[in-house]
Amino acid sequence: MKARLVIFLIVLLACLFSFVDARPLKANAKKGKVKNNSKPKSGGCNPGGPFKKVIATPCGAFLNTTDKYACGVHVSSTDMAAAIATPQWVGIGAYSVSCVCFKKIKVTNIANGKSVVIAILDHKLVEDKGGLDLTTKAWNELYTPDDVHRGNLYANWDWV
């Protein structure tokens, strides 16, 4: 009986530590106020760019309105925002605030020429260079029903 209790406690602690590790650090920004929209500088923060013909997707993760995301702020589906891919996330570890947080990018849908300017407010945990997960609002501004690749769109983007 004691062995089962010990195993249960170890598993419980492991789960708790995984949640603690997965939480983003606090940032100094408040919801609704996107600061510091200059291009990332070379030196300590060099995420690269511009990016041509990357895949952008609508992100269901932005439907969660209670948690803070990797830049330390709440993001809703009505914000003009995106999550940026791992190769462009310049930070310490996957869940740390990055120098690209709150920076703005201009995204252009290659198929229809529509463009939007959005803020980077989250980290996309994949290795596709330049890839973006867009909030519903940003996606709807770029996407049209006659786009060939429903669920994905090919886009060009650069820092503004």
TrEMBL record:
Keyword entries, A-Z: Signal
Matches recorded under InterPro entries: RlpA-like_sf
PROSITE patterns: PROKAR_LIPOPROTEIN
Signal recorded as keyword: yes
Gene3D superfamilies for the chain: RlpA-like domain
Signal peptide start-end: 1-22
Protein name in the entry: Barwin domain-containing protein
